[in-house]
Specification:
Pectate Lyase C-like; ten-stranded parallel β-sheet; eight-stranded parallel β-sheet; mainly beta; binds 2-acetamido-2-deoxy-beta-D-glucopyranose; 35% strand; 341 residues; globular
Length: 341
């Protein structure tokens, strides 16, 4: 489906780097992580596989196609300006065709459903709504999309999140996306008052995403469990990975470049630059937890790890990209137009 040249130095590094990890020979665009290996008794995320196929070119056709729980794969062509959030039914794949499938005005809403895949779509400048909101939903794979607005003259609340994952959603992978020019990137758990709703859920894998010129939340989690590996962060303005309210993160093999203040914090404070709700000086929350796996390249960023957690090992097979290859590989492989639909 997709071909890639092997970066030359890789051949050397496979010989020289001796760790317990298995290293990749080329980008792996197959599904990995929590969406592929959900909790006991659940099947991997397959979206609309085996079902009806739709080709859509308008919001009207798209809105009609996403309804119902029958399995369906929907190929989206061209720009679709949604007049309201697109409520996606279960067992659905939304696949952008070529490198020009774009969603504007309103976002994609994955609510109260299971088994949804979104790939190869550009989602831009969604006002008054998230780019993608995943709420009370399980088994979701968000892969090879581009999320873009304008950053950051309008402040943190001009737009909402790019990919927000809330209300006990679970078993999600966010991979190979290009997140750029936006303030609040990806929130996992949207209130410190939702402990009883969210605890035990919000298992999310973030891998090989390219985040450039963003404000905060790459991601920010509460009460859940996130595995954040092999992401590339360039010119992040305020705070990148935030783990708070007893959230657990395993952070490994990520690369930080350009301007950067804080790459990872488990200090509970919701900083003033991240739209705190109750105080202009930031909201006080209980700290989160973090573990560091394979070495990260923090660039010029600082870290503030106040509590080391129990999430030390991802419960599924995955292949780490060698740290020295991450920047090149993620830039080449993330975003739209890399898959052939
Ligand atoms: C969708 O479009 C593709 C390529 O243009 C075509 O091969 C296929 O037959 C179409 N499918 C439907 C259900 O219209
Ligand atoms: C579609 O989703 C529902 C859950 O909403 C599930 O019960 C059903 O088995 C799914 N159908 C297929 C064909 O996967
Ligand atoms: C999701 O389920 C809740 C509780 O049953 C309901 O209030 C809400 O309207 C549902 N949302 C959608 C989009 O179906
Ligand atoms: C969550 O979604 C399920 C359907 O999958 C629904 O039965 C339930 O009421 C929803 N719960 C909430 C709190 O929205
Ligand atoms: C980095 O920050 C400095 C000072 O705010 C700014 O002048 C410069 O343009 C920034 N560089 C990039 C690449 O954003
Ligand atoms: C790091 O966390 C501690 C709380 O444990 C806090 O007092 C300190 O201000 C934090 N440092 C930064 C730079 O935010
Ligand atoms: C802000 O805080 C108030 C009071 O704690 C709460 O009712 C409200 O839902 C919060 N809003 C958001 C967006 O979190």
């Amino acid at each position: 489906m997709t071909t890639f040249r092997l970066p030359f130095p890789f051949l050397l590094s496979i010989i020289l780097i001796g760790t317990s990890h298995v290293y990749a020979a080329a980008p792996q665009f197959d599904q990995v992580g929590f969406s592929k290996f959900p909790g006991a008794g659940l099947r991997e995320t397959t979206g609309g596989q085996g079902g009806r196929v739709f080709n859509v070119t308008s919001s009207k056709e798209l809105e009609a196609a996403v309804k119902g729980s029958d399995s369906k794969t929907i190929y989206i062509q061209g720009n679709i300006a949604l007049s309201r959030a697109l409520g996606v039914g279960p067992n659905t794949s939304l696949l952008g065709v070529g490198s020009g499938a774009t969603i504007t005005r309103s976002g994609i809403s994955i609510k109260n459903v299971t088994n949804v895949i979104v790939r190869n779509l550009k989602i831009s400048k969604i006002l008054g709504d998230d780019g993608i909101e995943i709420r009370n939903s399980t088994r979701v794979w968000i892969d090879h999309n581009e999320f873009e607005s304008d950053c950051c003259g309008g402040g943190p609340d001009k737009y909402d999140g790019q990919v927000d994952i809330v209300r006990a959603s679970d078993w999600i992978t966010v991979s190979w996306n290009y997140f750029h020019d936006h303030w609040k990137a990806s929130l996992v758990g949207n209130s410190d008052a939702l402990r009883s709703v969210d605890t035990g859920h919000l298992h999310v894998t973030y891998h090989h995403n390219y985040w450039r010129h963003e404000g905060t939340r790459g991601p920010a989690g509460r009460f859940g469990t996130q595995h954040v590996y092999n992401n590339l962060y360039v010119d992040y303005l305020h705070q990148v990975i935030h783990s708070r309210s007893d959230n657990q993160v395993l952070v490994e093999g990520n690369v930080f470049r350009g301007n950067c203040t804080e790459a990872l914090s488990t200090y509970g404070l919701v900083i003033p630059m991240d739209s705190p709700n109750t105080s202009v000086n930031g909201d006080e929350e209980i700290d989160g937890y973090a573990n560091l796996g394979a070495v990260n390249d923090w660039g010029t960023c600082k870290t503030n790890i106040t509590r080391v957690g129990t999430f030390t090992k991802a419960p599924y097979p995955y292949t780490l990209t060698p740290l020295a290859e991450v920047e090149q590989l993620v830039k080449a492989g993330a975003g739209i137009g890399k898959l052939q639909f």
